[in-house]
């Protein structure tokens, strides 16, 4: 698979801060990959999102998107390939109704109206929000708002979707619907997903996890490998996954297989133990 | 805040709602203009009947319009009383010092009262039947000719629609901040004037800070969705001028003609 994003040795320091938010960071993202970027608050995750989308400019280093190094001339082209869903659904609505908001990205691209109407309906249908088309975004629940935001991103057909802590303000049910939706979309539309979060439980759908701390990549690996770090995760301000904590406390009394067990594996091994007794 | 009827939108589905907002907007202003053509009982009666008919067509309860009068009550009372007692007359019914009460004065104050009611009813009708976003759309298309003198019409329109979009959000924010400050013991609406003004500081400062941070987030979100400078954008919302809008315009012309005929010179 090709790299859709490759970041080479970028550094970024906020004007008002002394230490760099991103410190000589390099990262490759493969096409159609689901990558999770985790790290504690202030580790530079959101800054990285803004750098990738060219919303802020790196002090040094290069970012390549779909084979093109981004600079001031091609940033708008690159931005068309990236859709970002932000943390607070309330602050990313531009339109006064759901359909207006979904159409905003298309309006910016100068898409003619008949095409827009079709795209908007299609995008809203994909996220199952078509009946809410004419509603005021303010009257929707948090999960519904994020679905509308996803529709807005989908309407412009990006290759990459970045979720910048998009589920952190949702309740468990809203979170689940949004994550399931993104998973379904990726399978159907062949998109690359970068999910940024500080909750390790949210990385379970991903294929690769990158931990960043102090603006640097400190761990990069398959989920099993990362989850197996166990208590080492707390060093980076992260919590251990629930199944790993449970397995840990069971291991003192019972003989469970070594290595990381996800929920299903844990359930199976507990069943095995109980049938042996 | 929910007491204020003026400027509020009431969802509905009658004929008046379906009219093109641009037409409604212009007609409202035009109507306010021609109200000043009326100068006798017949012409005022005619306009009043017309407005009541429009209210009837909107299928909105008359009570909402009467509530719309409420914030203007003191102004109306003040103007009417002033006219009633300070109109000079050769044949006063009653006079005391500079105060005179005469038949002419009473008629003029009745006219002024009707004039107030007409203007307030018509503007309430506009805001009750037109969503804020429709109003901002019509302002945009009415301002469009100003593009010729390099007036940034698209930007102003976007600014208006964002401002309108944020009114409910900021009201929510204000209520939340007020509750949070109440939970910490701030007492709103108590004590003397100075104390009351001071108690607004803990609302205003967080509100300012949060509106700036919302603005920043929104700007980032807009830019990431490809917003450059408003030029070269297409429009999703379109306004359609239909037969009924032409009819409404013709009705206004007829009203002007009738008014010119029945007014006294």
From TrEMBL, chain A:
<comment type="similarity">
    <text>Belongs to the ABC transporter superfamily.</text>
</comment>
<dbReference type="GO" id="GO:0005524">
    <property type="term" value="F:ATP binding"/>
</dbReference>
<keyword id="KW-0813">Transport</keyword>
<dbReference type="InterPro" id="IPR050095">
    <property type="entry name" value="ECF_ABC_transporter_ATP-bd"/>
</dbReference>
<dbReference type="InterPro" id="IPR003593">
    <property type="entry name" value="AAA+_ATPase"/>
</dbReference>
<dbReference type="InterPro" id="IPR003439">
    <property type="entry name" value="ABC_transporter-like_ATP-bd"/>
</dbReference>
<feature type="domain" description="ABC transporter">
    <location>
        <begin position="5"/>
        <end position="239"/>
    </location>
</feature>
<dbReference type="GO" id="GO:0016887">
    <property type="term" value="F:ATP hydrolysis activity"/>
</dbReference>
<protein>
    <submittedName>
        <fullName>Energy-coupling factor transporter ATPase</fullName>
    </submittedName>
</protein>
<dbReference type="GO" id="GO:0043190">
    <property type="term" value="C:ATP-binding cassette (ABC) transporter complex"/>
</dbReference>
<dbReference type="GO" id="GO:0042626">
    <property type="term" value="F:ATPase-coupled transmembrane transporter activity"/>
</dbReference>
<dbReference type="Pfam" id="PF00005">
    <property type="entry name" value="ABC_tran"/>
</dbReference>
<keyword id="KW-1278">Translocase</keyword>
<dbReference type="InterPro" id="IPR030947">
    <property type="entry name" value="EcfA_1"/>
</dbReference>
<keyword id="KW-0067">ATP-binding</keyword>
<dbReference type="InterPro" id="IPR017871">
    <property type="entry name" value="ABC_transporter-like_CS"/>
</dbReference>
<keyword id="KW-0472">Membrane</keyword>
<keyword id="KW-0547">Nucleotide-binding</keyword>
<dbReference type="InterPro" id="IPR015856">
    <property type="entry name" value="ABC_transpr_CbiO/EcfA_su"/>
</dbReference>
<dbReference type="InterPro" id="IPR027417">
    <property type="entry name" value="P-loop_NTPase"/>
</dbReference>
<keyword id="KW-1003">Cell membrane</keyword>
TrEMBL record, chain B:
<dbReference type="Pfam" id="PF02361">
    <property type="entry name" value="CbiQ"/>
</dbReference>
<comment type="function">
    <text>Transmembrane (T) component of an energy-coupling factor (ECF) ABC-transporter complex. Unlike classic ABC transporters this ECF transporter provides the energy necessary to transport a number of different substrates.</text>
</comment>
<comment type="subunit">
    <text>Forms a stable energy-coupling factor (ECF) transporter complex composed of 2 membrane-embedded substrate-binding proteins (S component), 2 ATP-binding proteins (A component) and 2 transmembrane proteins (T component).</text>
</comment>
<dbReference type="GO" id="GO:0005886">
    <property type="term" value="C:plasma membrane"/>
</dbReference>
<keyword id="KW-0067">ATP-binding</keyword>
<protein>
    <recommendedName>
        <fullName>Energy-coupling factor transporter transmembrane protein EcfT</fullName>
    </recommendedName>
</protein>
<keyword id="KW-1133">Transmembrane helix</keyword>
<keyword id="KW-0813">Transport</keyword>
<keyword id="KW-0547">Nucleotide-binding</keyword>
<dbReference type="GO" id="GO:0022857">
    <property type="term" value="F:transmembrane transporter activity"/>
</dbReference>
<keyword id="KW-1003">Cell membrane</keyword>
<dbReference type="GO" id="GO:0005524">
    <property type="term" value="F:ATP binding"/>
</dbReference>
<dbReference type="InterPro" id="IPR024919">
    <property type="entry name" value="EcfT"/>
</dbReference>
<keyword id="KW-0812">Transmembrane</keyword>
<keyword id="KW-0472">Membrane</keyword>
<dbReference type="InterPro" id="IPR003339">
    <property type="entry name" value="ABC/ECF_trnsptr_transmembrane"/>
</dbReference>
<comment type="similarity">
    <text>Belongs to the energy-coupling factor EcfT family.</text>
</comment>
